[in-house]
Design goal:
Shape: flat
Number of strands: 10
Number of domains: 2
Mean pLDDT: 91
CATH architecture of the largest domain: Alpha-Beta Complex
Low-confidence stretches: 72-80
Strand content: 15-25%
Radius of gyration: 29 Å
CATH topology of the largest domain: Lambda Exonuclease, Chain A
Strand order of the largest sheet: 3-4-5-6-7
Amino acid sequence: MAAVAALSYSSVRTYLECPLRWRFLYVDRLPEAPRGYFSFGRTVHSVLEDLLRPLVVPTTRLTPTGDTQRTLDDFGGRPAPPGRLMTREELLAAYAQHWVSDGYVSAAEEARYRLLGETLLTAYLADVARAPPTPVALEEHLEAQWEGIAVHGYIDRIDRAPDGGLEILDYKTSRALSDEDVRTSDQLTLYQVLVEKNYAEPVRSLTLYHLRSLTPLTAPRRDGEAVDGLRERVGKASDGIRSDSFEPTPGRQCARCEFQGLCPEFKEVPGGERAGLLSLVDRFASLRAEEDRIDGELRRAAEELHRAAERLGVHRIPGSDRVAIRRREEAWQFRPRAVRELLEASGLAGRADPTDPGAVARLLKDPSIPATVRRQVAEAGSRRVRWYWVLEDGDAAR
């Protein structure tokens, strides 16, 4: 398997949405089409960083070995007092300096966005002047190893929370946000992981700040289930990238993809090849229709055999020269977090990977595991049983 560079929230989301698009962006390094709203977001974020930089008072960080890096407070010193905020005129000058014109479809659209930025930034300045935040870091790039996978991210703002921990804040310039957005944001979940692997203090809350309405939408720190879910998705993306699995996954996202001309889902057969392939496609369609008919008959015959086997209490039904034999297949699904907690509480941590249903199912038949624990593990899962038929020669079956 190939080595995988550190994964960000956006790269994981891109891979899970379409692995081929991920390859175009991160392996082939094809440029994305510029879009006005991306340029607008970058501009606003740059101005906000300039605005709040004088208020930053750093806090204790962790070293790669897990030790803390000491701050002035540890030596009896005091951090420097917050600096002066920009004036409105300085803010607008910084806005003009940072403005990026790429991606707007017209001069009129760019003008509308530019006016919107002036409006929300000046309103934000007034809001900050009334109640200054307490940032410990701005536009912070953090890296970490998470279950053997390198992850990283750029965090808009990390504040000191009122109760002493840290608050992660991500600015959004979109039209609307909801409480559901902040409760389910994988981006904020990954930021929580990164902050807690790099800072000595715990994360207390996560916030999406809606700049158009000056509204912070805040949720408590993520619990284990949310973190476990994201860990599985990050692992899925990492495993797919390592195995060079880059098949396209068509969907609604294709409408906004600039790489359609390179994607096999959208490429057309050259004119010179069409006539020769037409009859082949027609024959394939005919055979597929016949296959569907046969599959339906096969399924109905299997169901009739199953009913007969149930009625007679047998698993073998002879034919003229073959024997139909009924087999049983069992599949389990478990709640990984519940299984992990049960195994840890029973001193059995490490006996099975809680995310591997097959490994957990094998515990249920392990006589060395106490019966009460096996029963509790079974209650943390659900079982699906499927019957199917195989054929053997009559002589071999007797």
